[in-house]
């Protein structure tokens, strides 16, 4: 396997501030599945594979300029409807054959387009008058097929173009990947996508035409101003590529310096890791296939029983009158043993990605935090955290440091974030948060701003204090600079931490009042007022 030299010519470029380790690797010949899994995917950086899908039937038969439109129309048949996208109205159901006819009309006369409102009316017409519809559909440039499923493991009913799977092959280096979906993308006229990222790994394969893809690593999120975390388009940038408003998005003026643009022609493929922002310009009559799958690291976490057992051994056990302590090196296998185990299994990749530097138990904790955010249907309110009632809310270890305890094991169950981060040693949490900031910045932002409860805020800030005691001034400065850089509003993050600590102190005070005086704070206020 040999990587090509970076090519900045032909419209490709690399931003001056983009770290060399994040630049797209280029391959003149495809790697094996083992090579991809060991040396490409773990880098968590893009990779270009030249000519890797040129032998597909799709690459030779689908080209609109070589009879591909007639071939596709006949192969799919007249009775298949697909969801097309229009720039102004969104999803519209349209017969696939009708879209092919409109592409043929565009191919004959690409400049004979008119305003899109007429095309919107055409798309609403019954599909029975196909020829009349297709002749009028040609009046709209911005109608295209986006993410129309050929395979969808979560919803097989959405696979309206499953018949086209016969014309594509699974790339050899993706063999064994658990694909969540395989999709077709096709546009008539030149098309520009918004800047966004995907929650899965992505292999984008061009089978006709040309695509220019601009890429940004997850760490560039502050320059791209992503949409609010819990909005409908939280994975999209707020900044317009055509006319960026630098007065409103001041950091966006630097976004090009952290980007890279690659050009994909027929037969080429691009690996886009999950979380990487990308913006795509497609030439007229371009067709592409993409494969989505979950990352190897997350899949390994889910199925690694030995790792799960180790994490269970590290879990915090709370009982009445006992102190919550960190697990010993013997109980957890020891950080050095874990480190050696990771080095032996993946020594060639550890330096390439922030995730590869994490110990197995720390990586497990990272996955659990990511899952909490991604699996939440709505924001977790701090008011949902039940206040502690234990007389052992504070207890001292032999070294005099304060630890959180409870009268039963349910205390931390009520704050899952606190339960995850409490067993982590300070430097383990330090490494995990840095990896999260560089790889999953939006998830970290949602975690702190929207989901952190009082107990979690108290534990996290105590861990920060412990980190500071073990780090130099330079390391402290670098950590907090990276940590707070992921927040669009850094003061909101600070407020979330400080308000959480304040709420925690209030809950502890209430607990003390209940135990030693037998009243609540509200009751005490009533008594005081009565006097």
From TrEMBL:
Matching InterPro entries: Cupin_8 (IPR041667), JmjC_dom (IPR003347)
Residues spanning the membrane: none
Composition-biased stretches (Low complexity): 125-134
Pfam families named among the record's database cross-references: Cupin_8
Disordered: annotated span: 111-134, 318-357
All copies of domain JmjC, residue ranges: 159-308
Recorded superkingdom: Eukaryota
Similarity comment text for this entry: Belongs to the JARID1 histone demethylase family.
Protein name: JmjC domain-containing protein
Species of provenance: Oryza glumipatula
